[in-house]
Amino acid sequence: MTQEAARYDVAISGASFAGLALAGALSDALGPELRVAVIDRAAPASMPADARAFALSAASRHLLEAMGVWPAIAPEAQPVEGIDITDTSLDSGVRPVLLSYDNATTAGEPATHIVPVGPLTAALQAKAKNHPSIALLAPAEATGFTADDTGARITLADGRTITSSLVVAADGRKSPLRDAAGVKVIGWAYPQTGIVTTVRHERPHGARAVQHFLPNGPFAILPLTGNRACITWTEDAGEAKRIMALDDAGFLAEIDKRFGGKLGAIALDGPRQSWPLQLHLARRYVAPRFALVGDAAHGVHPLAGQGLNLAFRDVAALVEVVADAVRLGFEAGDAQALARYERWRRFDSAVSAATFDGINRLFASDVPLLRSVREVGLGVVDRIPALKRFFVSEAAGLTGEVPRLLKGEPA
């Protein structure tokens, strides 16, 4: 790589969903004159199979539509027309629905789509690969950087260096660049494990998602296209280890015990995965010529499925502040633009993390009195349409100060 070729306006460490979306959206907003590098440890073709599916908000869908990638994803995206919530013990023979609501925004669009990892990954990778102003540096690893008034210099593991006006860490929960910037994190581990798999079921799901709150954690049934569902399951860490060690028949029996039986017989339709759960928040989201997005900035409990949506909120906000600064003649790494990004995103992320943590703690108890209080509370919400509409708007990502991309407008 020549010295001239190693100069970029923005360097993004991590070809995650957030990293790829940021590269594509920034390049769309500012045109081919903006030079973007995306650095990632893995070559795009080497990504392992992934059992996850995401509850993609309407706002996130607007972002993908604005980027032009939604048509490639839409055939595999299942709109969620309604949500049912239960709160029972594991051995309950009957799981009454305590809260049920339609999942449409005031504009009449689905507040949520369930999207498998595969189509989303492929669409974002194709966008980055085919964009003339994006350079994919992979396999490569950004190990550190320095910044001064003239720019930032990023060091790669193989000894190469590249320069840019702005460095963005989209390199995950254990972000090396976050550490290099001296940004500390706060958080804690949960005594829980996340489990995910896909099942095929006998009867149609009717485009309804189900959230069973069980004492060891929530068990979500997320509808996929066809008679299929993604199971996103939070379990006590010790019990999860036992369950993950079972053969397929034993594993399916554990799912069936929690599934509820309304969709008939079920069968496994994909691999299973598990991971330890934790919460973390970066104390700062920016440093000189540096910004955090996605899991590098925050990690929340997965019970509401909002991790990816929070990442896309980061992306849309950062694209907007950088695009506004560059159009006014400033650099992509302008300090005032980055301060605006931090004000915009850090408080929202902290509130979301605290909310999901509180809900998890509230429902992860089988104390009869507390269960009765929860049942009354859910019943009250079920009878107040205005509260249901508020929850749908929150899930759709359309409340508060919404970046232009999340409203479907050009950045």
Automatic annotation (TrEMBL):
Family per similarity comment: Belongs to the UbiH/COQ6 family.
SUPFAM superfamilies, A to Z: FAD/NAD(P)-binding domain
Pathway it works in: Cofactor biosynthesis; ubiquinone biosynthesis
Assigned GO CC terms: ubiquinone biosynthesis complex
Pfam family, one: FAD_binding_3
Requisite cofactors: FAD
GO BP terms in the entry: ubiquinone biosynthetic process
Assigned keywords, A-Z: FAD, Flavoprotein, Monooxygenase, Oxidoreductase, Ubiquinone
InterPro entries: FAD-bd (IPR002938), FAD/NAD-bd_sf (IPR036188), UbiH/COQ6 (IPR010971), UbiH/COQ6_monooxygenase (IPR051205)
PANTHER family given in the database record: UBIQUINONE BIOSYNTHESIS MONOOXYGENASE COQ6, MITOCHONDRIAL
Listed name of the protein: Ubiquinone biosynthesis protein UbiH
Domain of life: Bacteria
Record domain FAD-binding: where: 8-346
Record field: transmembrane: none
Top-level taxonomy: Bacteria, Pseudomonadati, Pseudomonadota, Alphaproteobacteria, Hyphomicrobiales
Nucleotide-binding in keyword set: no
GO molecular function: FAD binding; monooxygenase activity; oxidoreductase activity, acting on paired donors, with incorporation or reduction of molecular oxygen
